[in-house]
Design brief:
single chain, 7-stranded antiparallel β-sheet, alpha+beta, 4-stranded antiparallel β-sheet, globular
């Protein structure tokens, strides 16, 4: 773990020496310079993101339908009549706010993964709140997105509590540079949200294996609810995870972004969403400063490569052979 974590305070010089990327530096040196404002809607609007992903061959949960206006809320039973499980989320939400997962239903009673039963009236109210902008960025009027529920891979059963773990990959100029998996806990209410008490496990960017694990910014070795040994995590289909992150660069034109990916038992890695302003907690989970990594990409990594070539370079360190 960082040397400076053993102290209550760290000087700016110590933080710079550790390569820690602060919020101001992230905002001005990377987000402002690499992400053009006009491109933000491509990732801030989940409907646009999903449509783009299909164009670029990126695996993502299937869109069942959208509800844009209050008078359309009554369409929900018709939309999901052939879908025993589904997810409702705000098109412009962030941080997992407003996401409601339904594991089963009969049209009148809706059951969440935790076993909680909701009435149709409660579902109706949730969608109404979504449309009003309760969960959206800036409180703007929103759209309720209805999509298929990911068939969570059982590989991670013992590593998450009543929630689907995801992988967050930070992508810089098309190169995946840092990653972590976020694991739900009882404290986080079954959500993979670090600020709410989920576990963050730093992953080696080349292998998908555990580097370090933290909860509320403090190091841990085992999951607090399942007691699973976090050091044994190795994310399968790791190259496919990296490819999703690399392809998101061409898909959006954003030079600095976060890609959130889940592992479906039948369909493999699936992109849940993209973020033009990814947080910095990934540094704590990895025990590594992001600043040094980004400078390394600027200085040494080859340009004008395809997504596949960038991932191969990342994994092997070898530049692709020039075509004759």
């Amino acid at each position: 773990m960082f040397k400076w974590l053993s102290k209550y305070f760290a000087s700016p010089a110590e933080l710079r020496e550790a390569g820690i990327l602060g919020m101001n530096s992230r905002n001005f040196k990377f987000i402002a310079k690499q992400n053009k404002r006009r491109l933000y809607p491509l990732v801030d609007d989940k409907v646009q993101t999903k449509a783009l992903a299909l164009q670029y061959g990126i695996n993502t949960p299937r869109l069942i339908g959208t509800i844009d206006y209050q008078h359309e809320v009554d369409r929900l039973p018709l939309l999901v009549k052939d879908w025993p499980s589904f997810v409702i989320k705000p098109a412009h939400g962030s941080g997992g706010k407003g996401v409601l997962v339904i594991k089963s239903h009969d049209g009148e009673t809706f059951v969440t993964p935790s076993g909680r039963s909701l009435t149709y009236k409660e579902i109706y109210q949730h969608i109404s709140n979504t449309l009003s902008g309760l969960y959206s960025l800036g409180g703007q009027y929103d759209t309720a997105v209805i999509e298929e529920m990911v068939n969570f891979s059982h590989i991670f059963d013992s590593y998450s509590y009543q929630g689907i773990p995801d992988v967050r990959i930070i992508v810089y100029k098309g190169y995946p540079v840092m990653a972590m998996t976020r694991l739900a806990t009882a404290a986080s209410g079954g959500r993979a949200n670090l600020h709410q008490g989920a576990v963050g496990v730093g992953l080696d960017i080349k292998t998908g294996k555990t580097l370090k694990a933290v909860m509320r910014n403090m190091p841990i070795t085992h999951h607090p609810d399942t007691n699973a040994d976090l050091s044994k995590i190795e994310v399968p289909f790791w190259r496919e995870h990296l490819l999703i992150g690399a392809k998101a660069y061409e898909m959006t034109g954003l030079g600095y972004l976060g890609a959130d990916i889940v592992l479906d038992a039948d369909k493999g890695p699936m992109m849940l969403e993209l973020n033009a302003r990814p947080g910095l907690a990934v540094q704590i989970a990895n025990g590594l400063g992001l600043g040094k990594v980004l400078k390394k990409v600027d200085k040494y990594y080859p340009k004008r490569l395809s997504a596949e070539e960038r991932v191969d370079y990342l994994l092997t360190g070898k530049k692709p052979e020039k075509k004759k």
